[in-house]
Design brief:
2 copies of one chain form a homodimer. Chain A contains 7 helices and 3 strands, in the order αααββαβααα. Chain A is mainly alpha-helical. Chain A is elongated and about 70 Å long. Strand 3 of chain A pairs antiparallel with strand 3 of chain B.
């Protein structure tokens, strides 16, 4: 059940605030640039938006007067629409960001752990493969979080994104440790050991 | 974009499999019992369903012939509907659980880290309060995960739920460490130190 927020803009979903948040950093940006930036930041802790979602939020924000846009001039090879935050938008965002409303608990949907919880229905071999696939994917995510952090480092306007990306780097490291500990736990489940070749009596 | 699954039941959402998964453990259960059980297990790694969602999934599963239900007899003080998995349901669930389809990446929506990322819009004081609130809530979640694990321990049919709950316990511990490391990072953001009383020159 969504909590009543302590701002008059409480009805906006967090994804709208997230897009307005992207616009709150210095500079104008196209929808495509916002999408690329979200993929290198928001994605690690909140949201990996489709480009259509970015444009839907931009339309909503323009409708509220929180963002404005302009077409690039004839000097550009292709016209593009550039978005910027308005003063009203900045005030509304600051009100939301500094409000006393609880930001709410994290939401986690971990399909791997759901499959492990149902492990009695699958072979131990298949479960191990699934966890190993998750480890490999998480190693890729860790590298991307580190790359994003490296790009943000040393830029004072990005001090808080740096804190969020440092959290993301550690979160991916924790995810790896959790997966490795789960592999060790899986190997100790009763009945799993007999799947190991050395425990299986050779026929004949 | 949802990936095509390697089963003919690929169109069912994971929440339907999760409810069928609850029914795959020994015993019949009412919708209310399933809700209570989901809150003490699934909630930590996948889903905290509303009772209405549980009943919607049960109707869907009955419609597919994957679950059956019966009213309790006249010997019960109040009639209740008890649900059980059918043979067809067990086969479909096993096919899903042991399929080779990638279970997909975890989805994380962390509203606290979103607020930290937008920290330039709030006071350092307010940010710290938010993180501390998150720490207190996470300590409560850790206790609940440990209680759930204690209830599952020593029961062989629940070997895999034990693995999932051990993962959940460690995940809450990691969440606490991540929050504490973030508090330390926040204290080092340029411009934050001046908020500390000892750094403020006393007037006069």
């Amino acid at each position: 059940m969504p909590k009543k927020q302590d701002t008059r803009h409480g009805q906006l979903p967090p994804t709208a605030w997230a897009v307005l948040g992207l616009l709150s950093f210095p500079g104008e940006r196209t929808g495509y640039e916002l999408k690329k930036w979200a993929d290198a930041s928001l994605r690690f802790f909140y949201w990996s938006p489709a480009i259509s979602q970015i444009y839907a939020e931009l339309r909503r924000l323009e409708g509220l007067g929180y963002a404005s846009s302009r077409r690039s001039g004839p000097e550009e090879p292709r016209t593009k629409r550039q978005y910027a935050i308005t003063e009203t938008g900045r005030e509304a965002l600051a009100e939301w960001a500094s409000g006393t409303a609880d930001s709410g608990p994290p939401v986690l949907k971990h399909p791997l752990v759901l499959r492990i919880w149902l492990g009695h229905l699958a072979s131990p071999e298949r479960l191990r493969e699934r966890v190993e696939l998750h480890v490999a994917r998480t190693e890729g995510e860790l590298k991307e979080a580190r790359d994003a952090l490296a790009r943000a480092e040393g830029i004072e306007e990005w001090s808080y994104p740096q804190v969020a990306l440092r959290w993301s780097e550690r979160q991916q490291l924790a995810e790896l440790e959790l997966a490795r500990a789960m592999l060790a736990d899986l190997a100790r489940v009763p009945g799993t050991a007999r799947q190991h070749p050395s425990d299986t009596p050779t026929p004949g």
